[in-house]
Amino acid sequence: MIVSLFDPWRSRLCTCPRKYSLNPYTGCSHGCIYCYITSYIPRAFEARPKRNLLRQLRRELRRLDPRIPVTIANSSDPYQPLERVHRHTRACLKLLQKFNFGVEVVTKGDLVARDAPLLAEMRSAVAVTVTTLDEDIAARLEPSAPSPERRLRAMQQLVERGVNVACRIDPVIPGVNEGVEELVRELDAIGVRHVTSSTFKPRFDSWRRFCDAFPEQAARLKELYFEKGRRVQNSYYLPEELRRRLMLRVRSACSKHGITFAVCREGLGLNTAPSCDGTHLLSSHTRDAQHAHRGQHNHHTGDEHPE
Ligand code: SF4
Questions:
Q1: Which of 2, 81, 153, 301 holds its CA 20 to 30 A away from the CA of 88?
Q2: CATH at residue 249
Q3: Within a domain: 303
Q4: How far is the CA of 226 from the centre of ligand 1 (A)?
Q5: Domain tally for the chain?
Q6: Pocket residues for ligand 1 (CB within 6 Å)?
Q7: What residues make up the domain containing 156?
Q8: pLDDT, tens digit, for every residue of 77-104?
């Protein structure tokens, strides 16, 4: 199966609406240290294209329900470098458009801006993950992904084309990437309409990579994760009070800028958005909504949002 119902380990903390999941590639070369796909995909950071992808996708789309949106992708980045060569993601989008499916793209790849005109014609939203504005921290967290600056530029290009854009500030790791206020200010300036955030929930393999990349921070967080926190299935959670504090900071920054907010698999009940994952953006009329936002934004530049 190329398309399946999204069901992250049957997690009772997942609040996502019903949606399909589609990965045009197996694995992901961005190699983010916090990534969880290494726990279930062999050679996860060696990305490869899927065989017979389009033939199989066409067959499956004929019998799937177009009222249920498709997220692309949850276990690989659809705009990783392979896409420049194979253009599988673009071909999938065209097929999904033909079969009238709504699509939410989740990516760190600035190559997504290439498909802005196509996405603007579809019922679509794009969630770009940006965990920090600090280029050095980003390079340690997401060694082979485009820089935050390139991602922000891609978001800007999408917004200018009339695509609904959300941001995933995910994961937030205490003492590593806490500069959320500045980041959210940038997102507002661009015209981002929704933020989904969550705290780092390591599994054993991602924890090992984190220890290698951030040894001091790992030494400080070890007790919080493995003694004071709790285990949920195969993931380790920080103590609830700390997770709440971190997520409230992001929410408060978003509220200040009129951006909707939701958490991902935290179980904290902090959401201000109709959907946690940003799929509610699919129902808004893309171009009108963006233009309305831009107009509104132009009226409140400057000191109306003092930090
Ligand atoms: S972009 Fe996503 S799927 Fe790819 S390595 Fe990073 S976290 Fe994993």
A1: 153
A2: 3.20.20.70
A3: no
A4: 24
A5: 1
A6: 28, 30-32, 35, 37, 76-77, 108, 145
A7: 3-297
A8: 999 999 999 999 999 999 999 999 999 9
